[in-house]
Write a structure and sequence with these properties.
The chain has a four-stranded antiparallel sheet with strand order 2-1-3-4. Strands 6-5-7-8 form a four-stranded antiparallel sheet. The protein is an alpha+beta fold. The protein is 46% helix and 16% strand. Helix 2 runs antiparallel to helix 3. The chain is flat, with a radius of gyration of 26 Å.
């Protein structure tokens, strides 16, 4: 039992390290070759865990080989458009200028129910609202609405919005983030005075606190026990 536990921990850490090397793209929508590599890695990692007779180094070697293949293929698809089309495929237009592309849907074996369902997920409920629907190589459906159905933006209204920027976390569960305070060029005393204006006497009372681009403080207090 102890040997299995140790092997499991080692393989888990090694696979986690490999996934991090592959990049954050592996954790979102994946290309077909990326999905295949992840499935193979999971299978190779499970074999040494189940069978202690197999040397652990065999699993490590096979996983490293797959990692190398993934990095090489990613580099090739990055540099070559032809290789990317061959390895990843090409996007497919399912709705073209408002017309359903039946030939392409049959080729991809996608029925109308699947298309309508994916449109609803994207908050489009009528085919008449859609100009283009494109099935991306990662399986996601991109929708371009007709011009009269597009959401009105501030640019359309000739309004210049204020800059929002990224919120900066200052307190989490009562602990002050000194590094983030330095990023916004503020002191701890400034933060304490700001939270006092929000009715907070001590940072320990704060569950979450952040500052926006204008250094306006937002405080969420802990529930009183």
């Amino acid at each position: 039992m102890i040997i299995i536990l140790i092997r499991t921990v080692l393989l888990y850490l090694f696979v986690l390290f490999c996934i991090r090397l592959m990049g954050k793209g592996e954790l979102s929508e994946m290309q077909p070759f990326e999905l295949v590599i992840l499935l193979m890695i999971s299978e190779l990692a499970s074999l040494p865990m189940e069978n202690t007779a197999l040397p652990l180094v065999n699993g490590f070697t096979a996983i490293i080989a797959l990692l190398f293949i993934q990095v090489v293929l990613s580099y090739i698809t990055l540099k070559s458009e032809k290789a990317r089309g061959l390895i990843c495929g090409k996007p497919s237009i399912l709705i073209n200028h408002g017309n359903i592309n039946e030939k392409e849907m049959k080729r991809l074996r996608i029925n109308m129910n699947d298309l309508i369902e994916q449109m609803r997920v994207k908050n489009y409920y009528n085919l008449s609202d859609v100009e283009f629907a494109i099935l991306e190589t990662n399986g996601d459906l991109s929708i371009i609405p007709k011009s009269q159905k597009k959401t009105v933006t501030l640019e359309d209204m000739h309004i210049t919005p204020s800059y929002d920027g990224l919120p900066v976390t200052l307190i989490i569960d009562g602990h002050i983030n000194d590094e983030n305070l330095k990023k916004i060029s503020c002191s701890k005393d400034w933060l304490l005075s700001q939270i006092k204006t929000k009715g907070v006497r001590h940072p320990k009372e704060v569950l979450f606190c952040y500052a926006d681009a204008t250094k306006e403080i937002y405080v969420h207090k802990k529930d009183e026990v």
